[in-house]
């Protein structure tokens, strides 16, 4: 190789589903090592209400929605970018809407000599095994094909790595560890405590923060909370989504269950700060970065076995089976009933999350991309 080729930064295209604010710092740092171009398939999805100030980051990027034909997204701009002969193309966020475009992107990239890195957070759960629909079966087949044909795989965490090993992907192709939050994304409390929280000063607050959809298991959390032997406790269910109206109306007369709606920024920080326990009762959850956030604010955490971030739960919380209201009830009672144990769990959450930094995710990506290039 010539000196010029040795000095040239490897060219990398990252395809990502939307402008997620917690990913932008990662992309900016990677841009210092690689000639990086980030393509967002859309600015923001229907389920998100983020306000993203991407211009404050030094990122070469573009964004496009493609064309929807019979429910399938045909993303001409993404395919054009894949035809430019990058050294590496990073593919992520596969779903039934964009799978055709991603398969085409991989095919074009391979034809042009690009190495393919798959970025995935998929974890196998009982929810998938119970819902053996045609869509889920096809998704499993397509994931297998993409994983086996990719040069390297960048994975959210240990549960995703376990699934890829079960698919027979070679160990040397797997690079685990991308779910870290940058400091500038983790807001601290500012301004006045939200009214909803002021009304429940002195109560034990059990917090859920996320989307209202079936696989989040919110109804199991409500059942567990109502069964629990708690003297003065409030369940705060913050967020929005397709099931929000149904669930909030059903429990609108229960004074111990509160629905503040969507929260973000300093307001969200207050909900973490004023709560006593965070619960993520999901039936399926690739990771759950809200767990990272809750731990950053010093909360004990209860999650289910179906949550990818359960690897963060050690002496700082409990792990329960999904869809088991009784086991969840017992876990909530145990965390809140012993104040000394609660204090210890809180400190453990802060300690565990303080040992995880964004540079670890940067190292994971750098290693995977450089390995793909040399393969």
Structure description:
By secondary structure, this protein is α/β, with parallel strands linked by helices. The chain has 15 helices and 15 strands. A hairpin with a 2-residue loop joins strand 4 (about 65-70) and strand 5 (about 70-75). Helix content is about 40%, strand content about 20%. The protein has two domains: about 5-180 and about 355-375, Glycogen Phosphorylase B (Rossmann fold), CATH 3.40.50.2000; about 185-355, 3-Layer(aba) Sandwich (Rossmann fold).
Short description:
With about 375 residues, the protein is of the alpha/beta class. Helix content is about 40%, strand content about 20%.
Features:
375 residues; alpha/beta; Rossmann fold; six-stranded parallel β-sheet; globular
Task: Give the helix/strand class.
Answer: alpha/beta
Write down the overall mean pLDDT: 91
**CATH superfamily assignment of the largest domain?**
Glycogen Phosphorylase B
Write the CATH fold name of the largest domain.
Rossmann fold
Proportion of residues in helical segments: 25-40%
